[in-house]
């Protein structure tokens, strides 16, 4: 009996574990959430961009490793989907050219040898057949695919001068664009792996007008939806997909495409102004400015009665870790991505390109994979992205909300190692401790206990205590970014903040809060003190 009970418990736990990971297709929307149409359960898009839209007109990297192998690695690194880009002319003009012919035209001899070695099946396929074959391999590997119309001409995207920026630009014929959308929608009608089509990447340039945006986007969205009502239709805004306020000015009258409409947005360290803004401004100020701008320009679409999902279809950083501005941007934006539990696609998977901007075998330092496509570029990749990849909020769950304490710079979470020692450390977020918190000036309680977090003075680690209402046990999120968790004294100084001891330590100490005030000359790196309380009802 004992054994049987234990056994059924294990089986049940097993089923619950896997049912939380699996879903059926197609997808739909429910308010701000993307859900499994059949069950209504949330499906979080955790995608990686994998380009296929440059002159080679073939998904990158097939000269380096077998496609199936690469697809398995995407899965192993905990992505569930690929944003697979294409150029309109690949299907409206060059659809029947073979991959081999195209590589010969571009004189990509070394790449062709690599293709013949690792993925010979693509060489005699046409451009369209190869795109479809890639979708099939990604799909059978368990990945969802978003077919992203990236640009008209097969070439690197996107600049203000490339003539591909907005409807009516030199290389952006709206009829040909619609024809491209039709061809893709029809071709993948019966392939459930293609869960979404995006209308057009990064609309931009002088001819961009909100009214025209409304007109053409309405045509594109209804064209896709009429051919394939099962898939999600993803719509970008203006100014390189940084700005969806066109939807405020000229709201689409699409009735949410019967719960298939999703908006997308992009954000990089260099969006808007140059990335040096993350170095030459107080970090808390610039982080809060960037996030407030993001909310006002884009995130409003997922609020209120007309809420629609917002998909962050591009963001990323130099994965070699040498770009300080990018690192700061990622910490700042990661805190927000987990707080709102947004759907996203990282740029990008590719360690290199066959051909880009006149160069052969060009490296992509934003690539998850290294130049050789042999391994991840950043050894800390899984740790950095672990919490972002986790579904944190499930609108269908009846479990109550708790908080995790997330440290975006390390990607780790606060954990109580040992209730006897009553100390906290940073560790793998899958082992994070859960906390309850009622907001500024209240204690942070270890969930389901009477213990709270108490500061013990400068340079000392905080500890778990039953003394929960003194000055040292009530916490406030301070600074413009609200990313510093501080205990404040009545003397009204800047207070003491949680801080990761050093880059090679998992200890957390109390130290004087850094650059949390209004001093515009305070340019220290504050990331060690950044902690975000992240709400979850799934873990
Ligand atoms: C490719 O060939 C098919 C079948 O012959 C034809 O219907 C289609 O129009 C061709 N596409 C292009 C872009 O030439
Ligand atoms: C492509 O080549 C393979 C053999 O490598 C052959 O089986 C197949 O029929 C060819 N496909 C086309 C469309 O020529
Ligand atoms: C989809 O598949 C069904 C059954 O295999 C077939 O009858 C139908 O023609 C296909 N539709 C398209 C648009 O390919
Ligand atoms: C890439 O491959 C080349 C040739 O095999 C090798 O010399 C080089 O060290 C590799 N680079 C990386 C980053 O693995
Ligand atoms: C975190 O822990 C989980 C489960 O124990 C494990 O699968 C994962 O690889 C760990 N992640 C890191 C970055 O160590
Ligand atoms: C949550 O509670 C509602 C109402 O009590 C119930 O209908 C639903 O099945 C519950 N959901 C889960 C996932 O347990
Ligand atoms: C996570 O917790 C489990 C159970 O307490 C333990 O076995 C495992 O070693 C922990 N993993 C990490 C990375 O701390
Ligand atoms: C950790 O880094 C500090 C400098 O940041 C160094 O002094 C210390 O020796 C390092 N400790 C270990 C265990 O590597």
Automatic annotation (TrEMBL):
It comes from Cucumis melo. InterPro entries: GH (IPR017853), Glyco_hydro_5 (IPR001547), Ricin_B-like_lectins (IPR035992). The keyword Transcription regulation does not apply. The keyword Hydrolase applies. GO terms for molecular function: hydrolase activity, hydrolyzing O-glycosyl compounds. This is Major extracellular endoglucanase-like. Keywords: Glycosidase, Hydrolase, Signal. Residues 1-24 form the signal peptide. GO terms for biological process: polysaccharide catabolic process. Residues 66-350 form the Glycoside hydrolase family domain. Belongs to the glycosyl hydrolase 5 (cellulase A) family.
